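note to self — DONT lose this again. spent like an hour looking for the file last time. sequence + predicted structure for the chain T wanted, 236 res
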Amino acid sequence: MKKKGKITVTITIGIAVLALSTVMFMQFKLVNETDITSIENMREEELRTELANLKEQYDVANEQYEQQKQTLEQYQQQEKSDEETSKLVQDELDNVNLLLGKTNVEGEGVTITLRDKESEDGEFLIITSDILNILVNYLKLAGAEAISINDERIINTSDIATINETLILVNQQRIIGPYVVKAIGDKTYLESTLVARGGYVDTLQRQGYDVSIESSDKVEIPQYNKDITVKYMQQN
């Protein structure tokens, strides 16, 4: 549909250019057909009459020229306006998809890796969905703009749950350890928030959990790959 509209605008502009060229040709023809020798032999009154006729013809041709010129400029402005509008709409759509997690993104940030671990006294320290949920919330509070767990993008409607006390599901997909949590944001602030005394990574490490964190200038997070649907919300 968009291509058809561009073809129509192109044809219309072509017609306008042709008409404009025709008017200009009429002006040149009008000058060329004026017999200078005959004018020199005319009497003063005849010369005035002929001059008035020429001026009238020129004014008509010039008016047509200006009209066609304005029409052409309007078509050019309309085409430019359509392109600008289309770009603005596309930019807005891209921004919405970015915020919804529907695009692959990259940027500076941190990567946190969590593993199940057997402690020295034989106790198993298992990474649970509660631990992952708390970690995600800490990252959000620290300003993370995008988060994933084992490449499952976390959005506002994402769920992190434990099934049968053993299986962890993220976005209804089973994930297994090691659990790699990625976050894009101010890498220095994210890391310092988590590892400073009392930070969540620091707390887990003090409890004996196997947790490591690494900051990077380039963290890649994939898009949310499911449809985003609502059942009960509607515009007010």
